[in-house]
Amino acid sequence: MTDRIKAGLERLFIDHRIVFWYDAARDMRAEYDAVDLPDVEKVEIANNEFGLKYRMLRQEPKQKFLVFHDGPAPEMADNWLLDLYFACGVFKADQAAIWLAELGLPLQFEGVVRDHMEFYRAKGRVEALKQMITPSDTKTDVLRRMLAVCAGAEGALDTVIEELLAELADERDDAMRLMERSGLTEFFWKQVENAYGYVSDAPDFEDFAITLFQSCYARALGEDGKLNGEALLVFRRWKNNRLGAKAFETLSGKYQEILRIPEDVQERDIKALRAIDHFEEIDRQIIRSLVREMASQTVSSAEVLKTVRERRQSHWYPTFEDIYQAIGYATEFQQALAEANLTMTSPAEGVKRYVSHWYKIDQLYRKFIYHMQKSGQASLLSALFESVENRYTTNFLSAVNDAWQDQISGLSDWKISGFARQTDFYMDQAAEFRRRDQKVVVILSDALRYEVAEEALREIRKLNRFDADLKPMISALPSYTQLGMAALLPNKDLELSEDGNVSSFGLPTQGTANREKVLGMGRAGDRVKAMKADDFMRLKADDGKEVFRDHDILYLYHNRIDIVGDKLATEERVAEAAEVAVEDLTKLVRKLTTANFSNILVTADHGFIYQHRALDETDFSVAAPAGAEILVKNRRFIIGRDLDATSGMKKFSSSNLGLSGNLDVLFPNSINRMRVKGAGSRFVHGGATLQEVIVPVLRVGKRREADVEKVEVQIIVTGKSLISSGQTAVTLYQTQPVSEKQQQRDVLAGIYAADGTLISDEHLLTFDYISQNARERELPIKFLLSRDADRFNNQDVFLKLRERIGKTSHFEDYTSHRFQLRRGISTDFDF
């Protein structure tokens, strides 16, 4: 403080030889004693007025004097130095004057300080206020900035409200108590009344907060609210601000009970609630309604998908994302099943139809199960699960495989014309690269069903400069790991042994080491390597390149689905395992290309059938197997000698299956299972259903040029580009569906003045619509204008879609649309 006093005195001595300092409050003695001014004589008034006057005017007429009095200035009639007082400088050194000087404010702002002395007693608050003040500020502006400092806000009233809401959520009232101590409470409530229309005989901030939630909810429903549109804008901005999310959720959860929202939403049509997200209970009600209507088939797929699409803008969407995803997949599942024609006239037609259309039903069912489980809200989705499960099992899985059974029942040999056989894979597909003297890597993913591989195809194609295609292949029978893995190697005289293992070239094929030996039988001179995919993923980059350099053909064994599904304790997690498998394969492909592999094949030993609900007795094969000798009994096949054919099972001999030896194999019809003690029954394979025997061959290649870009988004405005009220509506249109190479675009949308001032609420939007229907890629949005918009009336303003720069907090313009702002009445919120 001494430095500030010294600086103030030095300014006065520039214009005056004599400066008076009256310490009216008698609290500045220490500061007077401490101050030291070169060439200035310090003197005190102590019943020595005539002597001082004679000295200053006669004896030392050129000397500078600082005249101090310990107390207030005397009345003019009693002041013997009055003529000098008026002729010379006067230093006001009380606290208010010092703070005023420190802030650089003129004397007419003195009341802003004197009436709120408590505010200025903290140096940090004075410094913060000093940083905010601008030369054009009025007294009201300064008081508003004081409110901001009390709340730790950025400056504007809406930011003060946001900080106070955050304190309320934390059950604190530090800022409100500081305002009260600083004498700012009355001013604060007057500002709130003028800005938001909140009027109360006994204003209270929690009462204001409850009224804010109540009014904004009512206004969103098209009803009257106690607060005005500006309050709705503040509410939206706060709710959508990532920094305010926790406070919003806390207060929303508390007030939805006070405002009886759970009871209220039950009386509402969900169409009226679709665009509202003030309370978590709204999402719960929408989900309950959708589940109920979907289970009873009283709502169209288009309506469900529209609702799910709109709820993506909800604040609570991350909380319920997996439920909405489950609902979306269930809807698509129902739609795909309704459109499916599950008939075929030949085995080849059955395969063709499966790989072109029917696989999608399996995929949508699996995705539904995955998101239902991940949501942790199985009870909320129970009615929908029952509906989906019943339709999947009865109307699809059983129906399509009953029709398929009719086709394969007539086969004498296991061969389907027009489709590649698993036993020919090495010779026809892997060795094709070696014949061109190119290196190749084969990923063998255990139980990678065709529909899971199709999802992996799309994920791999999303990678920049990657391309891939997918074709079906017919697995060997029985469709189990030992035979499928052996069939994918170079093979000769494939033979089932009595314990279910398989030999080729007379060599065992179980285990990585044995498979590497058999792989070496394929082409003379080839340097071969077989290893687990997990081991390859753990290699350092240089070690991966070394594997490429030193080998011509690499087989990588990947196991995510089968290792989970084949265990009774974990089989219910097979949908999750499939998700992980897709993620694994995408990462594995990237690492392989980094290690210089450019020819990549992904395939499987077999597929699987899976039903999430525990099976009924009717799902097991009725006829017990019989014959001379039963060697291996599996849920989906029996290996033995001289087995008896039955009406409930299809019999093939080893030679019928293209295998060496003299064994027989029985397969339960359609999706029936055999009873096997201790084995899981929901996830099974080994049989001859479409899902078990159609395996994928995924070919992955690398392109030289970048080929991934984001979808385009356009701003659609109907009528004139004119904003004449407090809100405006536009439609944002995603011009093409999201695909592997046309990826989603995330934008931040808001209306801005020409100088960059944001004059509306903002919306963070994701455009990732996959629909081919253009109308389903439209997103209607309403923008609320703020008070700042009044400053730009009769000017051009701009709706901007902005994109984040990388992972930073900065944004750049993507596209914009010019509007003229022409509002009839400008609002003055000052007083």
Automatic annotation (TrEMBL):
<dbReference type="InterPro" id="IPR014060">
    <property type="entry name" value="PglZ"/>
</dbReference>
<protein>
    <submittedName>
        <fullName>BREX-1 system phosphatase PglZ type A</fullName>
    </submittedName>
</protein>
<dbReference type="InterPro" id="IPR017850">
    <property type="entry name" value="Alkaline_phosphatase_core_sf"/>
</dbReference>
<dbReference type="Pfam" id="PF08665">
    <property type="entry name" value="PglZ"/>
</dbReference>
<feature type="coiled-coil region">
    <location>
        <begin position="568"/>
        <end position="595"/>
    </location>
</feature>
<keyword id="KW-0175">Coiled coil</keyword>
